[in-house]
């Protein structure tokens, strides 16, 4: 696709994304204690979208999680899950060398 078309698409996504974030602030998530069979820590259940993104920024090798597009966040989540599953199976040699080794504090 042309660069101009990509810029128009990006502007539209950003506009709709900003609107979504404004509206989503008022949405309650009463069943976020368990998401698709994964128990969610109580501290994470109470955090806002921005607080969760800040947590990700502190936990990942680089900052900028909030600014990522939704599909990119999903792709990152898939990669992290792939790493987790490799560790669970005892295949730590499959983990990307850039994986962070710093400890993660879910409180903040």
Give an overview of the whole structure:
- This protein is about 50% helix and about 5% strand.
- It is mostly helical.
- The chain has a two-stranded antiparallel sheet with strand order 1-2.
- Residues about 100-105 have low confidence and may be disordered.
- The chain has two domains: about 1-30; about 30-108, no CATH class.
- A hairpin with a 2-residue loop joins strand 1 (about 35) and strand 2 (about 40).
Topology:
Layout (H helix, E strand, L loop, with lengths): L2 H22 L9 E2 L2 E2 L2 H4 L3 H11 L10 H19 L20
Antiparallel strand pairs: 1-2
Distance between the termini: 41 Å
Number of strands: 2
| Total separate domains | 2
* Strand proportion: under 5%
What structural class do the secondary elements suggest?
mainly alpha
Tell me the Rg in angstroms: 17 Å
**Separate helix tally:** 4
Q: Percent range for helical residues?
A: 40-55%
Biggest sheet overview: 2 strands, antiparallel
**Overall pLDDT score:** 83
Unreliable parts: 100-104
Overall geometry comes to: globular
Key traits:
108 residues; mainly alpha; 2 domains; 2 strands; 52% helix
Question: What's this entry about, in short?
Answer:
With 108 residues, this protein is mostly helical. The protein is 52% helix and 4% strand.
């Amino acid at each position: 696709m042309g660069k101009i078309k990509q810029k128009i698409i990006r502007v539209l996504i950003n506009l709709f994304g900003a609107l979504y974030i404004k509206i989503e602030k008022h949405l309650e998530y009463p069943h976020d204690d368990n998401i698709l069979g994964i128990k969610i820590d109580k501290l994470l259940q109470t955090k806002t979208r921005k607080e969760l993104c800040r947590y990700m920024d502190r936990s990942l090798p680089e900052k900028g999680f909030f600014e990522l597009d939704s599909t990119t966040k999903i792709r990152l989540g898939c990669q992290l899950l792939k790493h987790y599953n490799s560790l669970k199976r005892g295949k730590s040699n499959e983990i990307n060398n850039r994986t962070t080794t710093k400890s993660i504090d879910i409180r903040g």
